[in-house]
Amino acid sequence: MEPKVKIWWRKYGIGYLFMLPFLILFITFVVVPVFVALTTSFTNYNMLQPPKWQGMTNYKLLFMDDDVFITALRNTFTFAFITGPIGYFMSLLMAWVIDQLKFRNAFALAFYAPSITSSIAMSVVWLYIFSGDRYGLLNNILINIGIIQEPILWNMDPEYIMSVIIIIAIWMSMGTGFLVFLAGLQNIPREFYEAAAIDGIKNKFYELWYITLPLMKPQLLFGAINSIVSSFGVFDIAVSVAGMPSPNYAGHTIVAHLYDYAFIRFQMGYASAIAIVLFLMTFLLGRGAMRLLSSDDM
Known about the structure:
The protein is mainly alpha-helical. It has helices at about 5-40, 55-65, 65-100, 105-110, 120-130, 135-145, 160-175, 175-185, 190-200, 205-215, 215-230, 235-240, 255-265, 270-295; strands at about 45, 50-55. It has a two-stranded antiparallel ribbon.
Protein backbone atom coordinates (compact mmCIF):
# COMPACT_ATOMS: atom_id res chain seq x y z
CA MET A 1 0.00 0.00 0.00
CA GLU A 2 1.42 3.38 -1.02
CA PRO A 3 2.19 5.96 1.69
CA LYS A 4 -0.38 8.74 2.09
CA VAL A 5 2.26 11.38 1.32
CA LYS A 6 2.98 9.81 -2.07
CA ILE A 7 -0.72 9.58 -2.88
CA TRP A 8 -1.23 13.23 -1.85
CA TRP A 9 1.75 14.35 -3.95
CA ARG A 10 0.51 12.47 -6.99
CA LYS A 11 -2.94 14.02 -6.64
CA TYR A 12 -2.12 17.60 -5.61
CA GLY A 13 1.66 18.12 -5.85
CA ILE A 14 1.85 19.40 -9.44
CA GLY A 15 -0.95 21.89 -8.77
CA TYR A 16 0.86 23.30 -5.73
CA LEU A 17 4.09 23.54 -7.74
CA PHE A 18 2.28 25.70 -10.31
CA MET A 19 0.93 27.86 -7.48
CA LEU A 20 4.34 28.24 -5.82
CA PRO A 21 5.61 31.27 -7.84
CA PHE A 22 2.42 33.19 -7.10
CA LEU A 23 2.46 32.20 -3.43
CA ILE A 24 6.07 33.36 -3.06
CA LEU A 25 5.34 36.74 -4.66
CA PHE A 26 2.07 37.14 -2.74
CA ILE A 27 3.66 36.40 0.61
CA THR A 28 6.71 38.58 -0.15
CA PHE A 29 4.92 41.66 -1.46
CA VAL A 30 1.49 41.47 0.28
CA VAL A 31 1.47 39.39 3.45
CA VAL A 32 4.90 40.42 4.79
CA PRO A 33 4.35 44.18 4.18
CA VAL A 34 1.00 44.01 6.01
CA PHE A 35 2.66 42.53 9.10
CA VAL A 36 5.56 45.00 8.84
CA ALA A 37 3.06 47.90 8.65
CA LEU A 38 1.15 46.48 11.62
CA THR A 39 4.35 46.31 13.69
CA THR A 40 5.51 49.75 12.55
CA SER A 41 2.15 51.29 13.51
CA PHE A 42 3.02 50.74 17.19
CA THR A 43 6.32 52.62 16.89
CA ASN A 44 7.66 56.15 16.46
CA TYR A 45 9.65 55.80 13.24
CA ASN A 46 10.87 58.72 11.11
CA MET A 47 13.17 56.72 8.75
CA LEU A 48 16.24 58.52 10.13
CA GLN A 49 16.34 56.93 13.57
CA PRO A 50 15.61 53.38 14.74
CA PRO A 51 11.92 52.72 15.51
CA LYS A 52 10.90 53.29 19.14
CA TRP A 53 8.04 51.23 20.56
CA GLN A 54 5.19 53.38 21.86
CA GLY A 55 2.20 51.05 21.93
CA MET A 56 -1.21 52.48 21.01
CA THR A 57 -0.05 56.11 20.96
CA ASN A 58 -0.39 56.50 17.18
CA TYR A 59 -3.95 55.19 17.24
CA LYS A 60 -4.90 57.42 20.17
CA LEU A 61 -3.52 60.46 18.37
CA LEU A 62 -5.26 59.42 15.18
CA PHE A 63 -8.77 59.27 16.61
CA MET A 64 -8.56 61.74 19.50
CA ASP A 65 -6.21 64.56 18.42
CA ASP A 66 -6.01 64.48 14.61
CA ASP A 67 -8.91 66.61 13.38
CA VAL A 68 -7.64 66.43 9.80
CA PHE A 69 -7.85 62.61 9.88
CA ILE A 70 -11.45 62.80 11.10
CA THR A 71 -12.19 65.14 8.20
CA ALA A 72 -10.44 62.76 5.80
CA LEU A 73 -12.42 59.86 7.28
CA ARG A 74 -15.70 61.71 6.77
CA ASN A 75 -14.75 62.70 3.20
CA THR A 76 -13.72 59.17 2.32
CA PHE A 77 -16.93 57.64 3.68
CA THR A 78 -19.01 60.24 1.85
CA PHE A 79 -17.14 59.54 -1.36
CA ALA A 80 -17.25 55.73 -0.95
CA PHE A 81 -20.94 55.45 -0.06
CA ILE A 82 -21.92 57.57 -3.06
CA THR A 83 -19.52 56.47 -5.80
CA GLY A 84 -19.33 52.80 -4.74
CA PRO A 85 -23.01 51.84 -5.04
CA ILE A 86 -23.74 54.20 -7.96
CA GLY A 87 -20.73 53.03 -9.99
CA TYR A 88 -21.49 49.39 -9.15
CA PHE A 89 -25.15 49.44 -10.19
CA MET A 90 -24.53 51.63 -13.23
CA SER A 91 -21.82 49.22 -14.42
CA LEU A 92 -24.20 46.29 -13.99
CA LEU A 93 -27.08 48.09 -15.70
CA MET A 94 -24.98 49.25 -18.65
CA ALA A 95 -23.46 45.77 -19.06
CA TRP A 96 -26.94 44.23 -19.08
CA VAL A 97 -28.23 46.73 -21.65
CA ILE A 98 -25.17 46.50 -23.92
CA ASP A 99 -25.22 42.68 -23.80
CA GLN A 100 -28.52 42.81 -25.68
CA LEU A 101 -27.30 45.19 -28.40
CA LYS A 102 -26.00 44.22 -31.81
CA PHE A 103 -22.71 46.17 -31.75
CA ARG A 104 -21.86 45.32 -28.14
CA ASN A 105 -18.07 45.28 -28.69
CA ALA A 106 -17.97 48.91 -29.82
CA PHE A 107 -20.10 50.02 -26.87
CA ALA A 108 -18.01 47.93 -24.48
CA LEU A 109 -14.84 49.64 -25.70
CA ALA A 110 -16.42 53.07 -25.25
CA PHE A 111 -17.40 52.31 -21.65
CA TYR A 112 -14.12 50.57 -20.76
CA ALA A 113 -11.80 53.22 -22.22
CA PRO A 114 -11.96 55.66 -19.26
CA SER A 115 -10.75 53.01 -16.79
CA ILE A 116 -7.55 52.32 -18.75
CA THR A 117 -6.75 56.01 -19.07
CA SER A 118 -4.67 57.72 -16.42
CA SER A 119 -6.76 59.32 -13.68
CA ILE A 120 -4.59 62.43 -13.84
CA ALA A 121 -5.05 62.69 -17.63
CA MET A 122 -8.81 62.37 -17.25
CA SER A 123 -8.81 64.93 -14.45
CA VAL A 124 -7.13 67.43 -16.79
CA VAL A 125 -9.99 66.98 -19.25
CA TRP A 126 -12.59 67.38 -16.51
CA LEU A 127 -10.79 70.40 -15.10
CA TYR A 128 -11.57 72.19 -18.36
CA ILE A 129 -15.25 71.43 -17.79
CA PHE A 130 -15.08 72.59 -14.14
CA SER A 131 -12.63 75.42 -14.71
CA GLY A 132 -13.22 78.24 -12.25
CA ASP A 133 -13.03 81.06 -14.79
CA ARG A 134 -15.64 82.38 -17.19
CA TYR A 135 -14.24 80.24 -20.02
CA GLY A 136 -14.72 76.94 -18.23
CA LEU A 137 -17.24 74.83 -20.12
CA LEU A 138 -19.80 74.47 -17.31
CA ASN A 139 -19.46 78.06 -16.11
CA ASN A 140 -19.80 79.34 -19.65
CA ILE A 141 -23.00 77.38 -20.24
CA LEU A 142 -24.54 78.41 -16.91
CA ILE A 143 -23.69 82.10 -17.48
CA ASN A 144 -25.04 82.08 -21.05
CA ILE A 145 -28.39 80.62 -19.99
CA GLY A 146 -28.61 83.00 -17.03
CA ILE A 147 -28.47 80.55 -14.13
CA ILE A 148 -25.41 82.22 -12.58
CA GLN A 149 -23.96 85.72 -12.91
CA GLU A 150 -20.38 85.01 -11.80
CA PRO A 151 -18.20 81.96 -12.45
CA ILE A 152 -18.10 79.33 -9.71
CA LEU A 153 -14.71 78.14 -8.45
CA TRP A 154 -15.63 74.45 -8.73
CA ASN A 155 -12.22 73.06 -7.70
CA MET A 156 -11.40 75.72 -5.10
CA ASP A 157 -14.68 76.28 -3.25
CA PRO A 158 -14.98 73.73 -0.38
CA GLU A 159 -18.72 73.56 -1.03
CA TYR A 160 -18.23 72.04 -4.50
CA ILE A 161 -14.89 70.20 -4.38
CA MET A 162 -16.21 66.82 -3.19
CA SER A 163 -19.10 66.94 -5.68
CA VAL A 164 -16.66 67.45 -8.56
CA ILE A 165 -14.46 64.57 -7.35
CA ILE A 166 -17.50 62.29 -7.05
CA ILE A 167 -18.74 63.11 -10.57
CA ILE A 168 -15.33 62.37 -12.12
CA ALA A 169 -14.91 59.17 -10.10
CA ILE A 170 -18.36 57.83 -11.07
CA TRP A 171 -17.60 58.46 -14.74
CA MET A 172 -14.29 56.58 -14.42
CA SER A 173 -15.69 53.76 -12.26
CA MET A 174 -17.55 52.09 -15.12
CA GLY A 175 -14.50 50.21 -16.31
CA THR A 176 -13.19 46.96 -14.86
CA GLY A 177 -16.43 46.10 -13.06
CA PHE A 178 -18.42 46.81 -16.22
CA LEU A 179 -16.16 44.51 -18.26
CA VAL A 180 -16.43 41.69 -15.69
CA PHE A 181 -20.21 42.01 -15.61
CA LEU A 182 -20.37 41.94 -19.41
CA ALA A 183 -18.19 38.81 -19.51
CA GLY A 184 -20.40 37.16 -16.89
CA LEU A 185 -23.53 37.95 -18.91
CA GLN A 186 -22.05 36.49 -22.08
CA ASN A 187 -21.05 33.28 -20.28
CA ILE A 188 -24.59 32.44 -19.18
CA PRO A 189 -25.91 29.63 -21.42
CA ARG A 190 -28.86 30.77 -23.54
CA GLU A 191 -30.61 27.49 -22.77
CA PHE A 192 -31.55 28.90 -19.36
CA TYR A 193 -33.44 31.76 -20.96
CA GLU A 194 -35.13 29.45 -23.45
CA ALA A 195 -36.26 27.16 -20.64
CA ALA A 196 -37.51 30.17 -18.68
CA ALA A 197 -39.49 31.36 -21.71
CA ILE A 198 -41.15 27.95 -21.96
CA ASP A 199 -42.02 28.20 -18.25
CA GLY A 200 -43.72 31.52 -18.84
CA ILE A 201 -41.04 34.14 -18.05
CA LYS A 202 -41.09 36.61 -20.93
CA ASN A 203 -40.21 39.89 -19.21
CA LYS A 204 -36.55 40.91 -19.36
CA PHE A 205 -36.58 42.13 -15.78
CA TYR A 206 -37.86 38.79 -14.54
CA GLU A 207 -35.06 37.09 -16.49
CA LEU A 208 -32.57 39.45 -14.84
CA TRP A 209 -33.89 38.77 -11.32
CA TYR A 210 -34.50 35.03 -11.47
CA ILE A 211 -31.79 33.84 -13.91
CA THR A 212 -29.08 36.39 -14.62
CA LEU A 213 -28.24 37.67 -11.13
CA PRO A 214 -28.16 34.25 -9.39
CA LEU A 215 -25.82 32.89 -12.09
CA MET A 216 -23.56 35.95 -11.89
CA LYS A 217 -22.73 35.82 -8.18
CA PRO A 218 -18.95 35.36 -8.74
CA GLN A 219 -18.83 38.41 -11.02
CA LEU A 220 -21.06 40.40 -8.67
CA LEU A 221 -18.75 39.57 -5.77
CA PHE A 222 -15.65 40.58 -7.71
CA GLY A 223 -17.29 43.84 -8.76
CA ALA A 224 -18.31 44.59 -5.16
CA ILE A 225 -14.79 43.97 -3.79
CA ASN A 226 -13.26 46.03 -6.58
CA SER A 227 -15.73 48.86 -5.94
CA ILE A 228 -15.02 48.88 -2.19
CA VAL A 229 -11.24 48.93 -2.62
CA SER A 230 -11.24 51.62 -5.32
CA SER A 231 -13.74 53.82 -3.44
CA PHE A 232 -11.80 53.81 -0.17
CA GLY A 233 -8.47 54.11 -1.98
CA VAL A 234 -9.28 57.33 -3.82
CA PHE A 235 -6.27 59.63 -4.03
CA ASP A 236 -5.08 60.70 -7.47
CA ILE A 237 -8.41 62.13 -8.62
CA ALA A 238 -8.83 64.14 -5.41
CA VAL A 239 -5.28 65.52 -5.57
CA SER A 240 -5.56 66.35 -9.28
CA VAL A 241 -8.83 68.22 -8.81
CA ALA A 242 -8.32 70.03 -5.50
CA GLY A 243 -4.58 69.87 -4.85
CA MET A 244 -2.92 68.81 -1.63
CA PRO A 245 -3.95 70.03 0.82
CA SER A 246 -7.30 71.03 -0.60
CA PRO A 247 -9.06 74.21 0.64
CA ASN A 248 -10.35 73.52 4.17
CA TYR A 249 -9.40 69.89 3.51
CA ALA A 250 -12.67 69.54 1.58
CA GLY A 251 -11.13 66.96 -0.77
CA HIS A 252 -8.75 65.36 1.73
CA THR A 253 -9.03 61.55 1.84
CA ILE A 254 -7.54 58.83 4.04
CA VAL A 255 -4.98 57.87 1.39
CA ALA A 256 -4.00 61.53 0.96
CA HIS A 257 -3.52 61.74 4.74
CA LEU A 258 -1.41 58.60 4.63
CA TYR A 259 0.67 59.99 1.76
CA ASP A 260 1.19 63.24 3.66
CA TYR A 261 2.62 61.55 6.75
CA ALA A 262 4.55 58.83 4.88
CA PHE A 263 6.23 60.69 2.02
CA ILE A 264 6.15 64.36 3.04
CA ARG A 265 6.63 64.24 6.82
CA PHE A 266 8.35 60.82 6.85
CA GLN A 267 6.49 59.73 9.99
CA MET A 268 6.21 56.10 8.99
CA GLY A 269 4.84 54.88 12.31
CA TYR A 270 1.88 57.23 12.16
CA ALA A 271 1.37 56.56 8.43
CA SER A 272 1.35 52.81 9.13
CA ALA A 273 -1.39 53.33 11.72
CA ILE A 274 -3.47 55.13 9.07
CA ALA A 275 -2.80 52.29 6.63
CA ILE A 276 -3.92 49.65 9.15
CA VAL A 277 -7.16 51.54 9.85
CA LEU A 278 -7.84 51.74 6.11
CA PHE A 279 -6.98 48.05 5.70
CA LEU A 280 -9.39 47.02 8.47
CA MET A 281 -12.23 49.10 7.01
CA THR A 282 -11.87 47.66 3.52
CA PHE A 283 -11.35 44.14 4.89
CA LEU A 284 -14.51 44.22 7.00
CA LEU A 285 -16.60 45.68 4.18
CA GLY A 286 -15.13 43.10 1.80
CA ARG A 287 -16.06 40.29 4.20
CA GLY A 288 -19.57 41.69 4.35
CA ALA A 289 -19.79 41.67 0.55
CA MET A 290 -18.51 38.09 0.45
CA ARG A 291 -21.09 36.98 3.01
CA LEU A 292 -23.85 38.70 1.03
CA LEU A 293 -22.89 37.61 -2.50
CA SER A 294 -21.09 34.31 -2.06
CA SER A 295 -22.98 31.07 -2.68
CA ASP A 296 -22.59 27.53 -1.38
CA ASP A 297 -21.62 26.19 -4.78
CA MET A 298 -18.81 28.71 -5.38
